[in-house]
Amino acid sequence: MSIEVLNFTHKMLQPNLLPRVEEYIEKRQTSGPLVVELDPTTACNFSCPECINANLLNKGGIEDERLTGLIDEFHDTDVKGIIFIGGGEPLTHKSMPEPIIKAYELGISVGLTTNGSLMPTEETLNSSKFVF
Fold this sequence. Notes:
This protein is α/β, with parallel strands linked by helices. It has helices at residues 8-12, 18-27, 64-76, 98-105, 122-127, and strands spanning 35-38, 81-84, 109-112, 130-131. Strand 2 (81-84), helix 4 and strand 3 form a beta-alpha-beta unit.
């Protein structure tokens, strides 16, 4: 068995990544991740016995104003993508789908991880690049 060592420099110079690397160097960015996984709530509308997050469920969530503020902060720090995920079902958060739509309108790529039981609206689906 051989171990292949990844060449980080080669990876960063791939044609599809090169514009982002050049932008990073030009701006000398030192803050703001590229992608954020955001857990708006731990509430879930299921109680699956095999759930790995069962001990986290229904412990609360992010307040509406804070969630909206986070979307603005992510935009201001040039975050490129937000994945709405969680220990529970993100669509149970009382402010949904507004944060998804707001992120999309600000030009942030949006992903949504859902159990699929709360059908997202067509607008939410159109605002999300990925739905898992």
